[in-house]
Amino acid sequence: MSATPGRTISLVAIQNANLAMLSALRDEVVRLFDSHADGDTLATQTLQQLFRYMSERSQTVSFLVSREYAWDAEIILRSFYEAAAKIVFICKAQPSEKEALAKEFWDAVGLAGDRRRARKAEFAEAVLKGDPSSARIFEHLRRPGALRDAESPGNRAARKAIDKKWSFSEIVETLEGELPGAKSLLHMYGMASHLIHADAGALELMIDRTLRQPEELQLLRASHACRILSDLASLWYLCAACLAGHLGVKFSEGKELGKQLRECLDMSEPLHRLFAESQNDFYERELGDPDAPEVP
After folding, report:
1. Residue 255: Cβ-neighbour burial (10 angstroms; 0-12, 13-18, 19+)
2. Distance (Å, rounded) from C-alpha 291 to C-alpha 65?
3. What sign results for the dihedral spanned by CA atoms 223, 229, 232, 233?
4. N or C: which end of the chain has fewer CB within 10 A?
């Protein structure tokens, strides 16, 4: 895209560099798991499943960004954030707590989800009684614990406390001490919530884009895409580094991958800066001297 006279910045080049970085990180994660002698612990098995889930969401986000569906990418990115947070949460736990934490994830948190699904399945079963093949599915789902053989804490307050403990916002709060800046993710996580719920905030985002001038809109879209790609790369790197620490395996590609990450982030910087500069008049008007005349 042409951003300024005589200067061209390629979003495609940024996307290609990001994909190469993510591919290298996936390979390193596979190597880390393969080089670990004991993969039978529940914590490690849980991390493998979370990495698989996160990887698939990452591929979807990259595809959507490449097709200029940034808002849809943000929605999927929210589930990527969730998986990444749980990976870091388990990896950063005290060694003596990791197995219990993984068991809690599958049993207590999972059974609470079963119970919520059971209540909702009851309504669907009532509607579909005339369709035996569909009704039996919901009859099965409305039995709490049908999908797992486990017991959750007996009282509602305890179950709510566990749900809160595993929520994205609570995990981020817990990790903030060890990972300064982690709470910055809460903003974009919240913005994705607007998009998911199709609320007034989501519609305002859509309206804002229609009011932008063409050149400004082009910069905004490019900067938005770069931020999403940067989130993918940064969190992938963080999760891989945390996994190495959890497994007690050397993060052998860490230095080279860190260099790749820095290069990806540096490639995006000019686009972020150009968009920020395009907003100077707006913010000077909104945040500057209240008596200053409006810029036409």
Report:
1. exposed
2. 41
3. negative
4. C
Q: Are 152 and 108 in contact (CB under 8 A)?
A: yes
Q: Are 186 and 174 in contact (CB under 8 A)?
A: no
CA distance 257 to 91: 20
Which residues, in sequence order, are bridge partners of residue 7?
4
**H or E element: which one contains 7?**
strand 7-8
Among residues 170, 160, 159, the alpha carbon closest in space to that of 86 is found at 170
Radius of gyration of the chain (CA): 23
Write the CB contacts of 73 (distance below 8 Å, at least 6 apart in sequence): 60, 61, 64, 65, 228
Task: For residue 162, give the nearest of 101, 115, 119 by alpha carbon.
Answer: 101
Q: Which residues contact 126 (CB under 8 A, 6 or more apart)?
A: none
The kind and range of the H/E element at 3 are strand 2-4
Contact residues for 17 (Cβ-Cβ < 8 A; gap 6+): 260, 263, 264, 267
pTM: 0.83
Give me the sign of the Cα torsion angle 16, 18, 20, 26: negative
Q: What is the pLDDT of residues 239-289, one digit of tens each?
A: 999 999 999 888 877 889 999 999 999 999 999 999 999 999 988 888 875
Question: Which residue pairs from 7-14 have beta carbons closer than 8 angstroms and sit at least 24 positions apart in sequence?
Answer: 9/222, 9/270, 9/271, 9/274, 11/222, 11/225, 11/226, 11/271, 13/267, 14/225, 14/226, 14/229, 14/264, 14/267, 14/268, 14/271
Among candidates 162, 61, 164, which has minimal Cα distance to 106? 162
* b/e per residue 119-129 (b: at least 16 CB within 10 A): eebeeebeebe
Sign, CA dihedral 115-120-124-126, equals positive
